[in-house]
Amino acid sequence: MNGFSFTRLALVARKEIVDLLRDRKSIFMALFGVAISGPLVVCLLYFVAQSIQGRIDQITAPIVNAQFAPDFVRYLERRGIKVDADPQNYETRVKNGELDAVLVVDPNYATALASGRPVTITLVTLSSRERSAPIAGRLAGEVRSYAAMIGNERMILRGIAPSVARPVQLEELDLSSVEQRSARFLQMMSFYALFAGLMGAIAAALDVTAGERERQTLEPLLTTPVAVSELAIGKWMAVAVVNLLAVTASMLGFLIALKLVPLGKLGLPFNFGTREFTGFMAVLIPFAFMVPGVLLAFGAAGKTAKEAQSSLTLAVSLVGLLPLISWLRQTKAPWWDVWVPVNGQFAVLSKVLRAEAILPLEWVAMWAVPALICVVALFAFARRLGDEKMLGGR
């Protein structure tokens, strides 16, 4: 056999792609599942945000002892809040989720207010239930606004400027850009983009390794005048093409969904356009080529397709946890974080969303680390293919 041949390599890659396309249903379902997951998340986020906004705008305030605070009731009604006077069994109904929050007026409200003493209005809610938080927050804000209005009126009647009670004014200056604010909501895109790069190649990697061995088509392939290295790289190229298609489909799905879904109308500052799409693809392309190499090495190590699938699922699950570490981290990421596989990609993708400058060394890490890992994985995969024990299922 002559040395390394790109012609034979291309033939192997073509043969593997044709074999993968024969099972069109599996490949289509894999690509479709990855491509549709992003838009589904965007649509789900939109409907959840729309539902929350609708509940806040059309809020009803259950008030116990409302008859003792008619002025407060009228204030809420002027603010567009409907009042449900004296709800029965309100504590039980709050606990079981029938009511999100209830205001309880002190029966001595009128007497205390007339004498200038503080009045107590209790907000009853369940802080452990997230869907109740927006309603409880709106009601708490209205009570504070009402209290501030009463306080200002009292001071004005006594000839005192209301500002005297507020010797210190807090002004907030938000230095974040629109892109940085939108990145807080779009952070999930970084995770789903990496998820697409991990999941898009599993089915194809299993088919060209453990699947071929179970079909007993690997041994005839090894008897052809093709070097083991050419066979390994050809299989990797075929799986990488499928994975790259999955990543591209996922990003295009996000791009189209964010263009069509009117998230801006709900006050969600989403900004994902051509610049962000290009930056994402620049990070994900080397990642999409690295993952198939790793999956092929794991897939070849399994004795059966089921065993290989279990190994790949475990590996993908463990790798998928790495971005969560960065997501939940409360301190500044160390300098070496960008050189950690998956973690580094997540960090740079987040920078792309925030429109922050990406250092040249970080771009080097985005391409050099996946290339190095891919070379090592392909070397291990080629050695496994050349091992006679593999054909014997050992």
Mean pLDDT: 81
Q: Quickly give the structural class.
A: mainly alpha
User: How many DSSP E strands?
Assistant: 4
Q: Span between N and C termini?
A: 28 Å
Taking strands numbered 1, 2, ... along the chain, how are they ordered across the largest sheet? 2-1-3-4
Largest β-sheet summary: 4 strands, mixed
Helix count equals: 15
Could you list the spans in which at least 5 consecutive residues all have pLDDT below 50?
Answer: none
Q: Which percent range fits the helix content?
A: 55-70%
Order of helices and strands: HHEHEHEHEHHHHHHHHHH
CA-based gyration radius: 30 Å
Strand content: under 5%
Anisotropy-based shape: elongated
3D architecture notes:
The chain is elongated and about 100 Å long. It is mostly helical and 394 residues long. It starts with 5 loop residues before the first helix and ends with a helix. Helix 1 crosses helix 10 (228-260), helix 7 packs antiparallel against helix 13 (343-353) and helix 8 (202-214) runs parallel beside helix 11. The chain has a four-stranded mixed beta sheet. 67% of the residues lie in helices and 5% in strands.
